[in-house]
UniProtKB/TrEMBL annotation:
Protein family (similarity comment): Belongs to the 6-phosphogluconate dehydrogenase family.
Domain 6-phosphogluconate dehydrogenase C-terminal: 162-303
PROSITE patterns attached to this UniProt entry: 6PGD (PS00461)
Naturally occurring in which organism (per UniProt): Actinokineospora auranticolor
A Pfam family per the record: NAD_binding_2
Protein origin, superkingdom: Bacteria
This protein's name: 6-phosphogluconate dehydrogenase
GO MF, one example: phosphogluconate dehydrogenase (decarboxylating) activity
InterPro entries xref list: 6-PGluconate_DH-like_C_sf (IPR008927), 6DGDH_YqeC (IPR004849), 6PGD_dom2 (IPR013328), 6PGDH_C (IPR006114), 6PGDH_NADP-bd (IPR006115), 6PGdom_BS (IPR006184), NAD(P)-bd_dom_sf (IPR036291), Pgluconate_DH (IPR006183)
Gene3D superfamilies: N-(1-d-carboxylethyl)-l-norvaline Dehydrogenase, domain 2 (1.10.1040.10), NAD(P)-binding Rossmann-like Domain (3.40.50.720)
NCBIfam families per UniProt: gnd_rel, PRK09599.1
Alphabetized UniProt keyword annotations: Gluconate utilization, Oxidoreductase
A single BP term in Gene Ontology: D-gluconate metabolic process
Amino acid sequence: MQLGLVGLGKMGFNMRERLRSAGHDVVGYDRNPDVSDSSSLADLVAKLEAPRTVWVMVPAGEATRATVAELGDLLSEGDLVIDGGNSRYTDDKVNAELLSGKGVGYLDCGVSGGVWGKDNGYGLMVGGDAELVERALPIFDALRPEGPREEGFAHAGKVGAGHYAKMVHNGIEYGLMQAYAEGYELLAAADEVTDVTAVLKAWTRGTVVRSWLLDLLVRALEDDPKLDEITGYVEDSGEGRWTVEEAINHSVPAPVISAALFARFASRQDDSPAMKAVAALRNQFGGHAVHKAGPTSGTGDVS
């Protein structure tokens, strides 16, 4: 099957390679000419045979919206656009309606697998009409992991369902990573445990907490046993926030995911204003010692 692929970053580049290795004809476009097969979106569309299928793999938000709008002006009736980025599900209905007015179909696809997907396959969650999903199945089958289709692929529902499912997936990911991180810190704090990496590696087989994320944590610790080469500053790309917002909208308690998101916020504070306030309050009502700010801060200077 022929596919146009817009966006050849870490994920898009590897997806192109996996699809080509499966025998598909992939024409890519990226603003980086070193990896692009086309000089522009118009050039990409011109190289595709009708009915065309174009997969968009660019940053969520305005970049995706602008790309979809431009494709809408370039494509013809009967063509198909698939948004495989991390767009917010509410954007999908807008994109689908825009393209529908031009006779162009639209699917949203949540994609998980990261930089490992090229070899291991990608988990795919798709939203949109069943007829369009069926049309794109050769592409989905090439990208998903080997094995039964339902293990790694789901037609999640109507337009927006794919990105909604991926949003919740990433919210769960936040909670899982935070639990592993807290367990790691507790092991590292115990005098009794002298080989934290060995303990975590032992957990990767036969235990109820084994997972690919745990495998990756062990890999990171084997490369950098005390994680000295990185800081604890952690970004969030949006899906965790959206998951918490949806939990509020649907009155669904999500304390673990919420706490994991807030822990990322805390990681970016050199000196938490909130905790300063807590220290000040303890000093006010109970006379508890506070650490003084200044050149000796953090060295045990208390009053």
